[in-house]
Amino acid sequence: MQDDAELNAHDLLLRLAGRLPDDQLWRLRDWLASGALPVLRRVLPRALLRDRIGLTAEEHDLLRAIGADPGLTSSVLGVLTVPPHRYTFTPELPGQETSGDPVGVVLGATLHGRIGVGDVRCSWRKAHTEAPRRIVLVGATVDRHRLTGELQRMLRALGEHEPCVEVLPREFELTAYHLAALDMSELLCLGAAELVNG
Predict the structure, then answer these.
(1) How many angstroms separate the Cα of 2 from the Cα of each of 38, 58, 165, 183?
(2) How many structural domains are present in the chain?
(3) Would the pTM count as exceeding 0.85?
């Protein structure tokens, strides 16, 4: 069923946050939100093979469940556990403490009190060789892949070329990447849904 495939694709892309390069991940999520699941089915296994990103057995099941090519899927590396991520997180961008965060203000104004949205949080991800990157973390109960696409497009309009948006369902088992980001995040606003991640 198409809806199940979209939910499985969203969950798989969540699991790949911090593992797939940001430029690929946001584009795959944008395709999913735009209804281009057939494109995602073709491109994702090739991206995993090209970047030598392994999947756990459960992640392999999700890749098959979205209808990816069985030949490509079987060629994707298998791993017993997800390798540790290489990032550190902070609640604020250094130097931003006094200047404010206009992007955070727009996100808060857009999602405050919104139906199907729980907590909206922001964290800043750092790695040794990369510039700090905003990570938006949103708890949501409905249309998670479409909300991801909407927020990515908003962030791109606000100047973030490779937006990192993590829309987390209530039942999602948080990865070490998401737990670390949530642990060092700042609350932007609350939607209307009664759920809190972290």
Answers:
(1) 10, 20, 23, 34
(2) 2
(3) yes
